[in-house]
């Protein structure tokens, strides 16, 4: 998670990331809690709890669900929301959409830099804490950065910095 010195629990989110967490939280509270409660009720009807695997699994599912609810609530409570409309386009920061030329693989990619909780490498949404995100943070168009990835060093030339549309 990205933090600041004042509060080590601060999490940086884009407005899209905040919306997705709020939707997940609503789904967990409104739909999944009811489903898990019904699973527990059904398992209780099977009788003897000492040998009731269904009951144990339903209680474990309830614990996982409540843990995720607490995690999301903590993230949202401590979130710093990036105003994407005010993002500079001359320097890479959280929320920036960055087009880079990979000098090693001779291809162009466009990454969106996001907070750690929003990362999705398949969608080229990279965390500011990932090797590529760390390398790109603070870069300007024309800069060549080196990202130390598990697969080796990547050399990326920043072509363009924009905002999400």
Question: H/E series, N to C?
Answer: EHHEEEEHEE
How does the helix and strand content classify structurally?
Answer: alpha/beta
Indicate the radius of gyration in whole angstroms. 21 Å
Kindly, what is the distance between the CA atoms of the first and last residues, rounded to a whole number of angstroms?
25 Å
Average pLDDT rating: 89
Main sheet record? 5 strands, mixed
Question: Number of DSSP helices?
Answer: 3
The total beta strand count reads 7
State the share of residues found in helices, binned by percent: 25-40%
Low-confidence stretches: 1-7
Which geometry do the CA atoms define?
elongated
Proportion of residues in extended strands = 25-35%
- Order of strands in the sheet with most strands: 5-4-3-7-6
Task: Describe the structure using short key phrases.
165 residues, alpha/beta, five-stranded mixed beta sheet, two-stranded parallel ribbon, 3 helices, elongated, disordered N terminus
Structure description:
Helix content is 37%, strand content 25%. The protein has three helices and seven strands, in the order βααββββαββ. The protein has helices at residues 15-44, 53-77, 131-136; strands at residues 11-14, 79-82, 97-102, 107-114, 125-127, 144-149, 152-162. Helix 1 packs antiparallel against helix 2 (53-77). It is elongated, with a radius of gyration of 21 Å.
């Amino acid at each position: 998670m990205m933090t600041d010195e004042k509060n080590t629990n601060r999490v940086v989110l884009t407005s899209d990331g905040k919306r997705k967490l709020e939707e997940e939280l609503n789904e967990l509270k409104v739909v999944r809690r009811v489903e898990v409660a019904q699973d527990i009720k059904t398992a209780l009807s099977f009788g003897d709890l000492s040998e009731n695997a269904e009951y144990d699994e339903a209680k474990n599912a309830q614990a996982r669900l409540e843990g995720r609810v607490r995690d999301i609530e903590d993230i949202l409570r401590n979130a710093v929301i990036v105003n994407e409309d005010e993002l500079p386009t001359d320097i890479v920061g959280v929320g920036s959409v960055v087009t880079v030329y990979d000098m090693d693989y001779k291809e162009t990619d466009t990454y969106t830099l996001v907070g750690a909780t929003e990362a999705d490498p398949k969608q080229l949404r990279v965390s500011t804490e990932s090797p590529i995100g760390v390398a790109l943070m603070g870069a300007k168009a024309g800069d060549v950065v080196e990202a130390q990835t598990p697969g080796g060093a990547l050399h990326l030339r920043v072509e363009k910095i924009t905002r999400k549309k």
